[in-house]
Specification:
The protein has no helices and 16 strands. The protein is mostly beta strands. The strands form five sheets. The protein has a four-stranded antiparallel beta sheet, with no helix packed on it. The protein has a four-stranded antiparallel beta sheet with strand order 9-10-11-12, with no helix packed on it. Mean pLDDT is 80; it is low at 1-11.
Length: 194
């Protein structure tokens, strides 16, 4: 008895009209000739044409850091990406470049928020509070800054939210000054009710 090995067969599907695009709603037997039940890495244009979707680029040539990436923020001010991996902040000068040495280490790996504001990159942590840096390497504590997980700039003020002790509170700094904060600047109208 002779054994016969079969070669794997690769099949290609050809579409003349792909105007129906991706259809996840219908059963495969109910699809029109111009529809597909599965489209991975495909971009559809307005006329029904399909093209290969552009893929991802490696953000770093090596596998460092080993900790889970919690936050990635591109600072327009610095022209660098700041990464939070575990409890550590790193900077990366350009895609593919190696991460710098640890720029700052938080006390826990809780997610932080980052934002550019008035010549500094500000970072906020739900336990450790707020820090800022002019270069992404040297960080200083903002003594009056609140705890939180999110930062945003609006109308010349830096807004902070996500304080675990005050979940419904949204803090605001003094206009043009990210180092001056007070609990009277928050946006709560009456109380902490959701």
């Amino acid at each position: 008895m002779a054994l016969v090995a079969r070669a794997a067969v690769t099949r290609r599907a050809g579409f003349q009209d792909f105007s129906g695009g991706l259809n996840l709603r219908e059963a495969p037997t109910e699809l029109d000739q111009s529809e597909s039940p599965d489209c991975m890495n495909v971009t559809l244009d307005a006329r029904g044409g399909g093209a290969k979707r552009v893929g991802y680029a490696k953000g770093n040539a090596t596998g460092q850091p080993a900790a889970l990436i919690k936050t990635a923020y591109f600072s327009e001010l610095l022209g660098k990406t700041i990464w939070q991996a575990g409890a550590v902040l790193y900077t990366q000068a350009s895609p593919g470049a190696l991460f710098s040495a640890a720029a700052h280490t938080w006390s826990t790996s809780a997610r932080c928020g980052l934002c550019d504001y008035v010549g500094y990159v500000y970072a906020i942590h739900p336990i450790d509070g707020m820090i800022r840096s002019a270069d992404g390497t040297t960080w200083s504590t903002v003594a009056a800054g609140p705890d939180g997980t999110a930062l945003a700039v609006w109308q010349n003020k830096l807004f902070a939210g996500g304080d675990p002790a005050q979940k419904t509170r949204l803090y605001a700094c003094a206009a043009g000054d990210g180092t001056t904060w007070s609990t009277t600047n928050d946006l709560r109208a009456i109380n902490d009710a959701a």
